[in-house]
Fold this sequence. Notes:
Layout: H1 6-19, E1 31-33, H2 41-49, E2 54-55, H3 72-77, H4 83-93, E3 97-101, H5 111-118, E4 123-128, H6 131-144, H7 152-160, H8 174-182, E5 190-194, H9 195-200, H10 202-212, H11 239-260
Parallel strand pairs: 1-3, 1-4, 2-3, 4-5
Helix pairs in contact: 6-11, 7-11, 8-11
Amino acid sequence: MSVLPAWKRAVRAGVDLALRPTASRRTLPTYLVLGAQKAGTTSVAAWLESHPSVLACRRKETHYLDRHHDRGEAWYRTLFPTVATARATVARTGTWATGDATPAYLWHPAAPGRAAAVVPDARLVALVREPAARAFSHWRHERRSGREARSFAAAVADELAGGEGPGYVDRGRYSAQLERWRAVFPPEALLALVSEELFADPAPGLARLVAHLGLGPHPRPGVLPRENEGGDSDDALTPEDAATVRAAVAADVERLPAIIGRRLPW
């Protein structure tokens, strides 16, 4: 979670306030990219927003369904395009969509129920990445941001002992997270993509994605941008640390193919 400078927070608050009277004339998201964190959510969101029928949300990672739910639906609507803009897009391209891509949604226990209450017809997209690699990437992100002083091994050990933290291991328990979403949305609303497959060969997964969202062909059907990859590091995921994470999530991973309807490459 990045912390904005005070002046940027003030500008955002001013824009939010100015747009509040327009809330009733605005749409809600037609799709949600749920995460997982460090699994390619930002890349998929950027690719979707380059589609001619997709209208961008004006804020990256709205966090409405986790941190900012108390701001209310009117605030949420101000982040999305007007109904008039959506109609103009339909006239121009034949369809339209707009989305909220916030990687914390998959993991946050309150997000599914909140989503079902405000956008019950939304299409859902989840990305799952090998849990040890995801956990290590998440730890590196926290280290670069200055929020993590522990070694990866120590952070994982603390979490497995019941300590509080960012959920390096727990966010890789995808089956439990997806089951929460499936409990309040119909099964056909959710598309789960495997990150390693998507980045190794984007075209098939991206074709499934646009079909799932009811969009026409994308002008760049097989080109997925690399976003938030992180810089070089002397750190490396050791076999021992990877084995610790995998053992902790093994029971959850065993259930995952039945939930997402496909075999895993890990």
